[in-house]
Design goal:
Layout (H helix, E strand, L loop, with lengths): L6 H14 L25 H12 L18 E7 L4 H6 L1 H7 L3 E5 L9 H9 L5 E4 L5 H9 L3 E17 L6 E3 H9 L16 E4 L5 H9 L11 E2 L3 H10 L3 E6 H4 L5 E7 L28 H6 L5 E10 L3 H13 L2 H9 L3 E2 L2
Parallel strand pairs: 1-2, 1-3, 5-9, 6-7, 6-8
Antiparallel strand pairs: 3-10, 4-8, 4-9, 4-10, 4-11
Length: 355
């Protein structure tokens, strides 16, 4: 019996959690005060849709049409870093931002000897090695406590919503997976694709280390755990994970949607609470590999904006609330991202900007 038959019980659990949370959007409560994951099924109610809209609006403000419209920015060079999910923002948006505001200079910094990620960036911020951090998860209780010990408060400012995409080999005849099936794969309950209607082929579950927001989100939300199961083969980077999927017909990997959906070498599969609610992370019609890179699959932003896609999360800028210039730099960076120009660019790279 496959794990598809467990869907009714899983859906009942979702309903209980939503009621327990007092209407707050989410499937499961994060461990370590992560908050609630922004996960919705395709059969959402009007109330759930309104909650999704609130999620996309919270803490956002109208700051102007273009980067050049923002005034009174702090001058100087400000170090930042953290989540690898933010890489397309750093490469495709921040350069244009600084051309418009040349006195507001940004310098990307990685921790020596540490794996890049949200946790690494937040720890660097706590050690005063960064002016502000980029994160793909909310703050943990212990991080807030560490800040209080140092005499200030850490503040998380949401700027966008994005999806986590599931990547498999282009030749694997699997079009979609339920959350329960994903859990079975990464906990070792499901070991062969023939258990999921596919070929007689061993499943190779691949993950990055448990130091980044993407992995922590997946482990907490999908696996309902605080640890990455031993069955997962750990790679150092998303690039390595995608390469392993390309080379191994039975491999599976997960990463930020903009890093997966447009790839030629792998395919993203639909995800759902059950087999009748599978939602594609890409726009249809699907672009076949032989037509890539002349044509590439695009992010299904409508499914993210509506809350239909099950694996959604927020992206945050983390600042120290201490009244110093670094706090002003982090808040200025948020204001720039939330201009109409910034939001348009966030949407273009595959995120859904908070309105």
């Amino acid at each position: 019996m496959t794990s598809r038959n467990k869907a009714p019980l899983l859906l009942a659990s979702f309903a209980f959690v939503v009621l327990l949370a007092g209407g707050v959007l989410g499937r499961l409560t994060y461990k370590n005060n992560f908050g609630l994951s922004s996960v919705l099924g395709s059969g959402t109610s009007n109330a759930s849709t309104e909650t999704t809209s609130t999620l996309l609006k919270q803490e956002a403000s109208s700051t102007g049409d273009r980067f050049s419209d923002i005034e009174a920015l702090p001058s100087g060079t400000f170090s930042y870093g953290g989540s690898t999910t933010w890489a397309p923002v750093r490469s495709k948006i921040d350069t244009i931002m600084q051309q418009a505001q040349p006195e507001f200079r940004l310098r990307y910094v990685e921790a020596e000897g540490a794996v890049p990620g949200s946790e690494t960036g937040i720890q660097m911020l706590l050690r005063n090695e960064l002016s502000f951090a980029q994160s793909s998860r909310p703050l943990k209780a212990e991080e807030r406590y560490q800040a209080q010990e140092k005499g200030y408060i850490l503040k998380e400012i949401p700027v966008a919503v994005e999806g986590i995409a599931i990547a498999v080999n282009n030749d694997l005849p699997i079009q979609g997976l339920t959350l329960e099936e994903l859990k079975g794969i990464y906990t070792g309950e499901l070991t062969n694709w023939n258990q999921l209607g596919g070929p007689d082929l061993k499943i190779e579950a691949i993950s990055r280390p448990l130091v980044g927001g993407t992995v922590e989100f997946f482990v907490n939300t999908v696996l309902d755990s605080e640890e990455l199961p031993a069955v997962a083969q750990v790679v150092d980077s998303t690039t390595e994970g995608l390469r392993r999927v390309e080379e191994n017909a039975g491999a599976i990997f997960y990463a930020s949607s903009p890093e997966v959906v447009g790839q030629c070498s792998v395919k993203a599969v639909a995800v759902g609470f059950d087999a009748s609610q599978l939602v594609r992370p890409y726009l249809e019609p699907y672009i076949q590999p032989e037509n890539c890179p002349e044509q590439r699959n695009q992010i299904n932003r409508a499914a993210l904006r509506s809350g239909e896609y099950p694996l959604m999360r927020q992206l945050f800028v983390i600042v120290r609330e201490d009244g110093m210039v670094d706090q002003k730099a982090g808040e200025a960076y948020v204001n720039l991202l939330l201009t109409e120009e910034g939001k348009d660019m966030l949407n273009e790279i595959g995120f859904v900007a908070i309105r």
